[in-house]
Amino acid sequence: MTDTTGPRPLTGRKVLAITLTAFGVILAANLSLLWAALGSFPGLEVANSYVASQSFDADRRAQAALGWTAQLDHRGDMIRLELAGPDGTPVTPVALTGKLGRATFAGQDQALAFAREGAAFEAPARLAPGAWLVWIEAEAEDGTAFRQRLELFVRDPR
Q: Which of 56, 58, 82 is nearest to 69 (CA)?
């Protein structure tokens, strides 16, 4: 009579099944994370990075020569942007555009319609709590472009 109540031996087939299952779980997790990353962020900043790099330094020097600074604030359903010159006085650009979005998810991006409100510019924006990025582009009277990316953190009202 043989004893069948004891532990069963660890065979080569069991080790193979355990190994394949472990690698299958890891592969499934990696593929699902890859799918989520590719589906939420296009990764494209400019159409042709080589062409954009050709004028980068000249554009940066021209923007620095303006001496403009940008301050961003969020209250309620409004974003407030203050642009100031080197002496601290408010600046009125010829053109001003803005875009708001998350750092890694393009699905919540929205254009900002800034309007002059006193010494600043305001745009309506309903924001969920968390980290946001605001990209602004302004044009000085002499045609110099002013581009800046500003970070904004919205606290949970609870």
A: 82
